[in-house]
Structures are given as structure tokens and as C-alpha cells.
Amino acid sequence: MNHFSAKSQNPPAPDDADLLAEFRQLWAEAASIWDRHQEEPAFEGYVSSDYMAVYEALNELRGQVSTVLEWGSGLGVVAIMASRMGFEAYGIESEEKLVNHSIQLAQSYSAVAEFAHGNFIPAGFPWTPEHASHVVRTATDDYDGYGELDMELRDFDLVYAYPWPDERPLFHAIMRTLGQRGALLLTYDVREGIELIRFANE
Fold first, then answer.
1. How far apart are CA 113 and CA 117, in angstroms?
2. Whole domain around residue 66: which residue ranges?
3. What is the pTM of this model?
4. How do 2-4 and 67-71 pair as beta strands?
């Protein structure tokens, strides 16, 4: 397991200026959806991200990865960004209402990201008591969403996730056991910031 620095030290390239302006509009629209719906049960577990930091990380990975999966994709902002940046992008989300919002947003921004309703933890993940002890709020009782995408976790070069506190060990275990050999896990949370890790399959 290797750590990488994903923070870009340079401003967006001039030819990306229009794209970044589009993304700022996307981020504002997602925030507006949250403001209007935050009291609804489907939004109870929704959290935003530092989308600029994620953009910079994805920008650094252009030409290095092709398939991107957003775990717990919420409103699908990261998957939409990835699609517009030229990646083949997908999202898995346990709240069907959020999936519907994601699809609508993707259409609004001419993104071809594909979203599935379900659990992002693959059905074949070998649970242990230690793994279970790291679950904080991630849904684990739904069917997984990979069948709807007609893909498996090992089909993705890069996975993006916003882990709940103490869930990083679980996410790492999933990537080590079922992810593609050499796949990358990009995570963000307010305590740790952006982290990019490459995994080798066990």
C-alpha cells in the first residue's frame, strides 16, 4: 500500500478554465439541492466534500487512470466531474432518491456518468468481526450496486470515497481484497483531507 501526494501545486490549465467554471456551477447547484432537501430522510447521511481538492486530485490523475467509481455517491458530483474530465465514471448510492438527483444533474451537465442504487460494499467481501467494528454509518444491509452496473470492483482503476470517522480501515480492506491490483483509493474527510493510496490485491 503506497501513499501518493494528490495535491496539485499549479492552478488549472487555461484550457480547463471553462470546465472549472462549469464545476463551480455544479457545486453551487448541489449545495442548493442540499439546502432544499436536508430535512428529508434520504439526505440524513449526505455529506459534501472539498470539491476543489478532489478536482485537483483528478486533474493530476489524467492519463493515469480511466475508470472511476464514486462510493456512496450522494448527488453524484464527483462522478459527474470525472465524466466531464474524460474519465469513464460511475457511482453507487444506497439512497434511491439521491440516485435520481444524480441522474438529473448528470444530464444537466452533459455527463455520461452511470449511477446504481445499492450498497458499494461488494457482496463477496469476507466480513470479519474486525471489519464490522469499523462500520460507523455506511449501509451494509442492502444488495450491492455492482450488478446494476454490470461491473465488479476490480473493473475500476480509481475509487473515490468520503469515509465516516474510523471507516478507513474497512475501506482499505475492501480495496485490498476485491479491488483491481494497483487500483487507487482517493478519499477526503475534514480531519485527514485528501489521501491517495495505491493497493495491491492480497
1. 14
2. 2-198
3. 0.87
4. unpaired
